[in-house]
Amino acid sequence: MKTIQISTTVNGDALETLCAPDETLLDVLRNRLGLTGVKEGCGTGDCGACSVTLDGRLVCSCLVLGVEADGAHIGTVEGLADHDHLHPLQRHFIDGAALQCGICTPGILVAAKALLDRNPDPSESEIRYWLAGNLCRCTGYDKIIKAVQSAAAEMRSA
Fold it and tell me: What is the per-residue pLDDT for 118?
């Protein structure tokens, strides 16, 4: 199958890669760019494990074609940390034991960051609503919600 060259910005870095016309953004990120923090859970957009931001909008990368990312800005979990400094969300997830197996965690972190970028002081209900598209089978959600709230409070006070 013929490949198409795309130019995109991923986590602030301008990149070019080739992809097939029917290849998902999930596969481009994982297999062509080596960004394995993006996970495939369901492949149908139901679990949120592959959540990324595309031009600031939260999307399931399994539902987006790689060619649709041409010229776009993509954010993945790999872009949260600032070199050796974890993002407050990452630290609060670790400190609050808000993760277990790790399959859902990258997508939840990306979704939570997208929420906090829009609303730095979300209510518990808003957090639960925003993260409803991200399924977790291991932790339940209470520790995840508390970690997002703690990170939001830290980020507001910084």
Answer: 97
Do 51 and 111 meet the contact criterion of CB atoms below 8 Å apart? yes
Q: How confident is the model at residue 80 (pLDDT cuts 50, 70, 90)?
A: very high
Residues 147, 90 contacting (CB under 8 angstroms): no
What is the pLDDT confidence band of residue 141, given thresholds at 50, 70 and 90?
A: very high
Q: What is the pTM of this model?
A: 0.96
Domains annotated on the chain, with CATH: 4-79 (3.10.20.30), 88-157 (1.10.150.120)
Contact 52, 35 (CB under 8 A): no
